[in-house]
Structure formats: structure tokens, C-alpha cells
Amino acid sequence: MATRAAAAQCQVDTDVGGHAVKIAVEGNTLEGPLVAIDSQGRRWQIDPHVVTRECYALTLFGSRGIAILPHGMALRFYTPTGPWGSPWTFTDLYSFYTASWQGGLIQADIDGDGFPDLFCGNYWLQSPKSFDLPWRLYAINAFHETPVSATAQLHWDGRRLLWVESRVPNGRIVRFTPPADIKQLWIPRLHPKSGKLNCPQLRLRKGKPTLASGVCT
Question: Is residue 105 part of a domain?
Fold first, then answer.
């Protein structure tokens, strides 16, 4: 059965209220205020206006927060500045200049230097050694044929990246293996279900990736 991709939302425990809160674009839309909502329905505005398809809980250099992909063209990290109701601050970690909305975000130490890097869309981002230093961007692939070609769903098993083109009918499903020089394009191998699922959706069951058809959004 086809399933619709979830609206942009995530759960994060920021330690300001002692429990996780839901982060979402108000009204579960792509555009509007970005808010935190607690179990009692209290609303805490993070940003008065964003345009994003996705939201992720993320910890960077010991700071808990959330990451979104504004317009699919940047990677932005928000953290609260104090107790419930306080302003949130944000840092744009990187801006993308690719003819496709980027999507998907997972964290892993890709280069083995002890600092968690990030996979995002067509790329992986090498973590600096401290928060105030710049991130560095390296392409895994160059898929950008449509405006949403790079809105991928991702799974990393420590050796290969499962890359799922989730908002395209008959989307590509590719396993990428890092080459000897991981800063170069990665080595692709099509999954047997590549091109056979409508807007394929990636889910984890007991830590194992599964694939099913979805609804393009």
C-alpha cells in the first residue's frame, strides 16, 4: 500500500523542559512559522518563517538542536538560547548551489577522524574540529535532472550509503561505495528495486532498511 511522506517535523530533547518536544512547520505545511510544541500543546516559536520539507534532531559539538534545509538549498542548525519560550539561534552550516532541492540528512564519521560528518542530498559534509570553523563539501553523485532529484532518503551501514530518490516516480535506488579518495564521486551500484517503485520510501525495521512505494509530495 502506498504511504504519504510525512510533513516536515521531528522530535528533539533540548534539555530545557526535561522532555522531547515536537518541532514542525505550523500547520504541517512546507512554509510558515517553525514552532516547538510540547505535550500540553504549548507553542514555542523558533523562526517566524521558513520553507522546508524536512526537520532533523541533531547534536553538534555537544549542542542539541534541530536542522532544516531551507528551500532545499542550505543546511541550517538551530539551538535554544534558554528555558521554554526563549529565542532560538541558528547557524547556516552550508549553502548548496545545485539545480535540485537537497534532502535527507544523517550523521556519521565518514573520514574516520573522530568528528561526526554529515550526509545530505548529493553530498557529504566534512566536520570541522570546532563549531566556529567551516564545513567542507564533497559530492557523492551529481543527480539533478529534476527540481527534486536530490531529495533523497539515506541509510549508512558504515561501509555503503543507500541512496533513495524519494520524490520521483520510479525513483533511483543506489548503493554508493566510497572510493579510495572519498572526496571524489562515489562508486554507484543500482539496487534491484531501482526504478520499480513509485516515489520509493525508506524505512528502518529493527535497524534494517526496507523499501516501499510512496506518494510523491
Answer: no
